[in-house]
Amino acid sequence: MELLWVRDDLRLVDNPALNALLSLKSKDSVAIYIYDSRKFEQSMLAPANKVFLHHRLIKYQKELKEKYNLDLIMFEGDAFKVLSQFIKSNKVDNVFWNRRYFPPLVEEDAKIKKHLIMSSIHCESFNANLLIEPWNGLKDDGKPYLVYSAYFKKAYKKLDYSLTKMKNFMFDRKTKISGHQNKIDLLPKRQWHKTLHASWSADALSTTKKLRKFLKNDVLSYNAKRDRPDLDGTSSMSPYLRFGVISPKMILTELEKVHSKNRWMSDPNLAQYVKELYWREFACQLMYYFPYTVSKPLRPKYKKFPWKPHKQSLRAWQKGLTGYPIVDAGMRQLWATGWMHNRVRMIVASFLIKHLMQPWWKGAEWFAETLVDADIASNSLGWQWVAGSGADAAPYFRIFNPITQGQKFDVTGAYVKKWVPELANLPLKYLHAPWEAPKSVLDECEVILGKDYPEPVVDHPQARVKALNAYSKIKNN
């Protein structure tokens, strides 16, 4: 029997591990997915992730069956034990999988590969989800980059987005397999998951259509729209990249169909979009070489930062009840849809860290819980970037003003009005700072601050000064 081990590669196209299985043309083949609930796996799969994954697995199981007559069966348990028992029970000769890069999982894969080789079983792993693997994008001295611009310059020179040419073959497995499940229920008990699922299609075809529409209509205005949460100006491919419904090579291939590769770096909109893909690659390299940055600062001096942990402040931020409309709109969008606009991600992160003085990893944990696109590498890089403790980080004195950020990027107020409907009737002049509205205006709009909408949890100017003082104590260490 031949075995495909499915992980974060839930697609039929540009899938080298699946293609390796197809190339053998062995009818007695099967694909398996193992839900491993051990601690390090839980760090990779939080509730919102699981909602997306649950529905995608169901779709992918159907797609494999229809396209190749290949069965995708599922197990729960320790991956090493499940694979070992499966191989022993079914006389497996070949095993294929696509690589992952979180160090605990890399170690797990190495352990499994060693066991298979010692058991005289052929196994191969492939790069399916990156444009360039971590060890191929290093500096000339063999060290990883800590500055994104330098990393991009090096990595882009090695650009190769040629797709895996998939074989055609119809499987016809006869071997009976016991102990597996037709599906795994990953949905949380609370009904919250229904609103998340309604916001995201798990269908591969609709994903491709969504991408093509963006590349045809919106990418040439990407720089003008990508910071506007009130506009649909981004590709929203992050959840699909996270679980391999689509690959970065597929995105660049589609981009080339519409816009010649020769234009990519000369057109600022196309260049920025390509660089966003490489930011994800940069995050993966950092996680691969500095795995501790998931919970600890990359820069050691930031271990001494004087955080002020406060459960009530953290909870107000999580629930979108800070009294700052652009922050609250973002946090409510996150809870309702499992996604947040990237500009607003930076605003809410800056607010938690530099206004409320809450540890950045508390914010990272909440994002990991609630984002359908939660990726441990990008999540860690993003939060440490805002905190100033990571690679290529924002300067310590960069503190987003939530009022002016709202005025600048939610120009019409549509974003705040959608997610903070209690302020929908407020004039735009006061929408991003409702406490500045005269009582007569608030009365006319039937808004009572402190009742219908909270008073600000902190005063922006005072919070800014406190943050600057805290950062100044460690900046020269």
Could you please describe the fold and organization of this structure?
The protein is mostly helical and 477 residues long. The mean pLDDT is 93. Helix 5 (103-118) links the parallel strand 4 and strand 5 (122-126). It contains 22 helices and five strands. The chain has three domains: 2-128, HUPs (Rossmann fold, 3-Layer(aba) Sandwich); 129-161 and 204-289, Serine Threonine Protein Phosphatase 5, Tetratricopeptide repeat; 300-472, DNA Cyclobutane Dipyrimidine Photolyase, subunit A, domain 3, CATH 1.10.579.10. It has a five-stranded parallel β-sheet with strand order 3-2-1-4-5, sandwiched between helices. The protein has helices at 16-24, 39-42, 47-68, 79-90, 103-118, 148-157, 192-199, 204-217, 222-225, 238-242, 248-258, 268-289, 311-319, 325-337, 342-355, 360-370, 376-387, 402-409, 414-419, 428-431, 439-444, 460-472; strands at residues 2-6, 29-35, 72-76, 94-98, 122-126.
Q: Can I get a quick summary?
A:
The chain is mainly α. It has helices spanning 16-24, 39-42, 47-68, 79-90, 103-118, 148-157, 192-199, 204-217, 222-225, 238-242, 248-258, 268-289, 311-319, 325-337, 342-355, 360-370, 376-387, 402-409, 414-419, 428-431, 439-444, 460-472, and strands at 2-6, 29-35, 72-76, 94-98, 122-126. It has three domains: 2-128, Rossmann fold, CATH 3.40.50; 129-161 and 204-289, Alpha Horseshoe (Serine Threonine Protein Phosphatase 5, Tetratricopeptide repeat), CATH 1.25.40.80; 300-472, DNA Cyclobutane Dipyrimidine Photolyase, subunit A, domain 3.
